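Homocysteine S-methyltransferase 3: structure, please.
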Amino acid sequence: MVSGSNGTTSFMTDFLQKCGGYSVVDGGFATELERHGADLNDPLWSAKCLVSSPHLVRKATIQGFEAKGFSTEEAEALLRRSVEIACEAREIYYDRCMKDSCDFTGSGRISSHPVLVAASVGSYGAYLADGSEYSGDYGDAVSLETLKEFHRRRVLILANSGADLIAFETIPNKLEAKAYAELLEEEGITIPAWFSFNSKDGINVVSGDSILECASIADSCEQVVAVGINCTAPRFIHGLILSVRKVTSKPVIIYPNSGETYNAELKKWVESTGVRDEDFVSYIGKWRDAGASLFGGCCRTTPNTIKAISRVLSNKSLPSANLNIQM
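Here you go.
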């Protein structure tokens, strides 16, 4: 945990230096919950599992829990619990590494790598549960102040939850990126953060705002230690990395989806240009050459995707580390 601006600035670069220049980020958690039988057709989405199946656990908002009848105190406790569960999972991983000290990618067993827990902050659109996180269209009634007040309490709780950093992810428009940046400064939050945007054309974020302008907001925010793209079709990632690199020297993080498209009316993912795990992973070398240094998967990717990413990177004879996103 960092406690000052200088430490915040060097947090991610120091971490990446220690692990050979890159890190593996985790995969599509909601996808895995569904594979284990969780029914996520609910406004809380995977945060529902914090209540019904904490042993299996994703994006949560205080307002979302309150809308389901929980008190503010209960909602805040569930947010804290989500980070606790991720930290507990990290301890289980470390314990297993002590017992099985062989290379995971080489022999199917686990070797110990540093693991960071990132507390996920999803967009305002995710709370609306109407698919607007994939369009960025919040309507004229939603202002910068609306977004800051919506996110404020959750960010404050997660900043003091024990997480190593905050992942502001699936950011669909420039307004929400600006709200996050201003919120971090106004509240004097010193825990590191990353900003990750989503795109549907490889040029702009999903709202149509310029990726260059959005990434510039992240670059100018002192607490932001990495900038990147998530929940975006793999075919767009290379060009987006190049765009992001034009406006920031901060590490670039990418965790695309499978290439499928989310249908907000049907509330499910539909086939478009989805790729198999091995095809998804074939892009990693190109993305690394373009300047990315943190790699993972988002919606509809699986543990097999992450294993394959780790295997490809390990084949380059470099050590790897892991980022575990609590969502």
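Notes: The mean pLDDT is 81.
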